[in-house]
Amino acid sequence: MNLLYDSYEGMGARVQGYEDVSAEDLAALKKTTLADGFAQDETHTLGSAVFSLYKKGNTTRILAYYPEAREAKLTTDEAPLIHGLTDGTEKKTAEPLLTMVDTFDFGLSLVMRLSDGRFIVFDGGWENRDYPDRLMAVLKSQCVTDRIVIAAWIMTHPHIDHYRCFISFSEKYKNQYEVQRFVYNFFDPDTKNDVILSAEKEGPHIGRFFDKVKESGAPVYRAHTGEVFTIAGARFEVLSSPDDSLKSRVTDINTLSLVLKILYMGQTILITGDNFFHYAHLAERFGTYLKSDILQVPHHMFVGGSIEGYRLIDPETILIPCEDEYVFSVFSTRAKATKGPSEYLLRDLHVKDCFTGARGNIVLPLPYTPRENGRALLLADLEKGDRSIGAKDWFFADVTPENCRFTVVNTSWETARLRVDILSEAGSVSVHDFKELTLPKSCYKVFTLTDPEGYEPDARGGEIEKYFKSGERYVIRFRCYTPMIVKGPNEPIYHS
Hints:
This protein is of the alpha+beta class. The protein has eleven helices and 29 strands. α3 runs parallel beside α4, α7 runs parallel beside α9 and α8 (about 325-330) crosses α10 (about 375-390). The N and C termini lie far apart (about 55 Å).
């Protein structure tokens, strides 16, 4: 057994991670915990992962063991934990709903209306940009009780487009709602954090957030991996938390995101915030237990998801808190780091319904049945995204060395490779890969075919003029792995 990390998590919590843990090593960790004065409280299993909770006064220690990955964690916290909470029963006073609040760029704001009329809020989004107003509008329109009651406001992680909404929301709508509890796992608002290198950026704002939470008077529960709680019949399981991210210095706050599996109304909903699956080792630790009906796609479908993680989750319905332009045209299905997982999720799995942002509030009744045409709409969005950023093949006729000036536009966030073929009448000249050019993300390039850039004379057996002669006319073909826009000396005769 090897100690991988021993990190201060914030707010009095500490986590130790171990690898190559045998059954004997696990027994030794339990023995050490008992020797430290802790008494075992309970043990439960999520998939094959086993979580044992120990108590010593107001301090809790969670021993997490992942047998298939041969990993273990010891998390010790003096703050109240949410584990074991049971609040209310599944009264039938309202139709349960899951709402993705309208987002016009990216940011996470989800609202779950429970069967007893109370709400669960996840994050909220940006501090400004009308996000507080959009959230309150949803709560007011769906409220069936005398007062808006938020049974739990859950913050997935301390990033600007997720948690800060509450700061301005609490100021603008003070006394118009009630929060019964907050659930999150944030680091201390201290700019001298040695583990979380970007802490200084959010530290002051976390301090503002803490002040507003304190003003509310609602209790705060710190969420750790392995905790389970129930509100109005909805069962919440914490599958990942900062417990899993502090094995090395954190350079991206998004990796601190909570992952919550919710079992409600006969369905499974997976909330991932901006979690990075490979940091959390979700696939290795939980395997097929990740299977879910509804998935909030991690990190707005930017970097975070993985092919193996999506394969195991295998959702029917997905929520992507991001404008469809980013999802289908600019980033998620284009950038090298995200294209593989995103394309796999959207095209290769069994997604029957996909919802993106900037299309109004997305309201799903629970349990949710995907729309009959949902898959067709998704494929149409993918096709529209391809068309909106250009084409992969362009043909121009009647091009000569005297008029061979072209402009190429790459609107995606992926470096693109452009190959040029040259064809003459009756095949007297036919050169495959006459030129090969590279375009960085989000840029345009103006060039002429007689420029030496991208041309390799050794490979071609001579200079450009050997194949591209003055006074003759040619058809020029541009081949792009990423769709692009090409402007030439005349209208293209074909593009697709």
